[in-house]
Every structure is written in structure tokens, then in C-alpha cells.
Amino acid sequence: MGSLLGYNRLAETAEQTMFDRGQVGRNLATGQDGPNEPTSNWAYGGETICAVDDDPKSETEDGAEAAIVDAIVRLPRDTEIDVDDRFKWTKTHGIALGVPQEYRVISQPRRGPSALTAELKLITGNTEN
């Protein structure tokens, strides 16, 4: 088992290679619609450093269906993000994207010794996907 100092150094090194920026959208359950389906809104926090791989070539299990992963985001280890949340990619290498890319988190994020990773599905049109 590594020391806390060792993990902190790993995290610092990982963060030095995160050249993108994004925002985590926390899921706020807001009630139910007509057929008693839950409705949600997402509260986006401030920008955080990250590294987005938008060509990961992998799949993940999303409930009973296989979902193609559109992106994988690597975030600082202490970032709070959950499978019910969203992620908005806003800048790459310091340059603002013309239109920020919004994703939903499609699998439970994994916290490693240096960073947290989450698999993402691009949201197009319908924000409830």
C-alpha cells in the first residue's frame, strides 16, 4: 500500500498533464412529470482542469444495454462526480470550444491513485438521454 505522500505526488503529476477544462453538472432531482417519471436539472459548478479523450474506442455496460463510450474524462482525484451527473467540456488546451460538449456519465466513475476517470456519452438534442 502506498503512502499518502506518494499518492499526493501521483495526483500532482497527473494534474500537470490535464490541459482541458470542464464543468461537472450535479443531478438535482426536481420532482416527477405526468406519468410519475423523475425529472432532473443539473447544477454546473465552476470550471475544473481535466483531460478529455473523445476517441476512446471502447464500450461499457449501461444497465441492460451496451453503450458506446463517446469520451473518457480524467479529473483531479478529489472531484465529486457520480453516474447520475453530467459533464460539460468547455476548453481544450486553453482554447474555448465553439460549442461546449455536454455528456452524461454512463458508468460509475473510478478513483485511482492519481486521478478519477469517468466514461461519457455525448448528449445530442434531447437533454434527457
Distinctive features:
129 residues; globular; Thrombin, subunit H; single chain; mainly beta
Question: Would you write up a description of this structure?
Answer:
- This protein has 129 residues and is mainly beta.
- The chain has one domain (4-122): Thrombin, subunit H.
- Helices cover 9% and strands 53% of the residues.
- It has one helix and ten strands.
- The chain has one helix spanning 4-15; strands at residues 20-32, 38-44, 48-53, 59-62, 65-68, 71-76, 86-92, 95-105, 110-111, 115-122.
- The chain has a six-stranded antiparallel barrel with strand order 1-3-6-10-8-7.
- The radius of gyration is 16 Å and the shape is globular.
- The termini are far apart.
SSE series? HEEEEEEEEEE
* CATH topology group: Thrombin, subunit H
What is the assigned CATH homologous superfamily? Bacteriophage SPP1 head-tail adaptor protein
Number of strand segments? 10
Taking pLDDT < 50 over at least 5 consecutive residues as the criterion, the unreliable ranges are: none
Q: Which overall shape is indicated by the principal axes computed on the Cα atoms?
A: globular
How many whole angstroms does the radius of gyration measure?
16 Å
- Main sheet: strand order: 1-3-6-10-8-7
